[in-house]
């Protein structure tokens, strides 16, 4: 068996998340100047580590440096460089390398990035070539991504070991990050790619809120506000369900931001990861988030301001997930997912978390963290 896996890493993917920039397109330099350390390479390495079991039977075909060779080497894999660029990479580099890997007929193309990277890959290889995304962006609406980097590695191994190599057509979605920063959420469909089939390891498409969810969200918000302790800090994440809670409190917040409240009053707007750590030092805090319908993520998708250090500090018992019944039904029994990228915080979040699913209605729901 002689396996060849293509690899593309968008080294700057996700850098805007921790500093509340809601994306990385056009603002990567700003994020780096604020001290953010790129994580896409490390997340690619985490996924690639699963491929070590193939030994000398597998070669990673990739670009130089941060485009993929660094991640492959860090994972202990043999690699062949077929494209060189001295910089951190661009959309043009992604497209060029993707076309080259398709022409070489690699067994599977892995890419680490977000929806923008997925779009560049899809436009380059079409919908008949096996592609799998390693989640490394801020927002990820596309169904081409595995649920976590480790899930991407597991799914890649299963795909490469089978003879039939079943794939399914997955949506590639993206939105204009300038619109996103202005509060407009309008993702568009840009095409499809063929991805390895596994409903538990592949995140699938985001399920939109149902017609009755607005009423349920109002009931959830009323319950949450009624139960708030006056001295406790409440850190409220982005999303349509949590937005209803923010609207019931005092202060000008946003549907897309992470905001902090004390005594029903906004005390920190559009918080960064470092600002949240500073605010909660030595104080009691509770995190309120929602889950992504159909996917189940509660951390690691559009709310990277909730850092691993903050999660360890607050603890799973002080996390509440606000989810309408239809959102829970859309998960079809699959657990919530906390994509933390940190072992200690993943261990903290693995277990059952509190769910507020109606007025004075709570439940416990399983969370798996990585």
Report on the architecture of this protein.
- This protein has 370 residues and is α/β, with parallel strands linked by helices.
- It has 13 helices and 16 strands.
- Helix content is 31%, strand content 24%.
- It has a nine-stranded mixed beta sheet, with helices on both faces. Strands 3-2-1-4-5 form a five-stranded parallel beta sheet, sandwiched between helices.
- A hairpin with a 2-residue loop joins strand 9 (259-262) and strand 10 (265-268).
Helix and strand arrangement:
Blueprint: E1 3-9, H1 28-33, H2 40-48, E2 58-63, H3 69-74, E3 79-83, H4 91-103, E4 108-113, H5 115-125, E5 131-135, H6 149-161, E6 167-174, H7 177-181, E7 188-196, H8 213-227, E8 233-236, H9 240-247, E9 259-262, E10 265-268, H10 273-280, E11 285-289, E12 297-299, H11 308-314, E13 319-322, H12 325-330, E14 336-338, H13 343-349, E15 351-358, E16 361-369
Parallel strand pairs: 1-2, 1-4, 2-3, 4-5, 8-11, 11-13, 12-14, 13-15, 14-16
Antiparallel strand pairs: 6-7, 8-9, 9-10, 15-16
Helix pairs in contact: 2-6, 4-5, 8-9, 11-13
InterPro entries: AcoX-like, ATP-NAD_kinase_N, NAD/diacylglycerol_kinase_sf, NADK, Put_ATP-NAD_kin
Keywords: Kinase, Transferase
GO molecular function: ATP binding; NAD binding; NAD+ kinase activity
């Amino acid at each position: 068996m002689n396996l060849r896996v293509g690899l593309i890493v968008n080294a700057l993917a996700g850098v805007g998340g921790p500093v509340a920039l809601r994306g990385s397109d056009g603002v990567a330099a700003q994020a780096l100047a604020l001290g953010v350390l790129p994580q896409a390479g490390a997340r690619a390495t985490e996924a690639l580590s699963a491929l070590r079991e193939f030994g000398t039977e597998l070669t990673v075909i990739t670009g130089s440096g941060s485009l993929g060779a660094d991640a492959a080497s860090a994972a202990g894999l043999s690699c062949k460089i077929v494209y060189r660029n001295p910089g951190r990479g661009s959309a043009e580099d992604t497209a060029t390398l993707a076309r080259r890997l398709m022409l070489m007929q690699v067994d599977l193309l892995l890419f680490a990035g977000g929806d923008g990277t997925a779009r560049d890959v899809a436009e380059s290889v079409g919908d008949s070539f096996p592609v799998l995304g390693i989640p490394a962006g801020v927002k990820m609406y596309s169904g081409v991504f595995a649920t976590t980097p480790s899930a991407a590695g597991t799914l890649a191994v299963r795909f490469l070991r089978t003879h039939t190599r079943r794939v399914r057509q997955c949506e590639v979605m993206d939105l204009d990050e300038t619109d996103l920063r202005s509060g407009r959420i309008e993702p568009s469909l840009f095409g499809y790619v063929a991805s390895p089939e596994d409903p538990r390891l592949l995140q699938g498409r985001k399920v939109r809120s149902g017609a009755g969810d607005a009423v349920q969200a109002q009931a959830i918000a009323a319950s949450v506000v009624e139960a708030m302790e006056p001295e406790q800090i409440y850190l409220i994440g982005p999303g349509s369900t949590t937005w209803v809670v923010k609207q019931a409190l005092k202060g000008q917040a946003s549907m897309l931001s992470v905001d902090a409240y004390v005594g029903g009053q906004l005390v920190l707007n559009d918080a960064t990861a470092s600002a949240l750590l500073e605010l909660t030092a030595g104080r009691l805090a509770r995190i309120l988030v929602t889950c992504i319908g159909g996917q189940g993520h509660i951390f690691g998708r559009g709310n990277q301001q909730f850092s691993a250090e903050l999660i360890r500090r607050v603890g799973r018992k002080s996390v509440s997930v606000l989810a309408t019944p239809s959102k829970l039904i859309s998960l079809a029994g699959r657990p919530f997912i906390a994509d933390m990228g940190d072992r200690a915080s993943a261990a903290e979040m693995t277990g059952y978390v509190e769910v507020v699913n109606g007025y004075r209605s709570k439940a416990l729901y399983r969370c798996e963290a990585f």
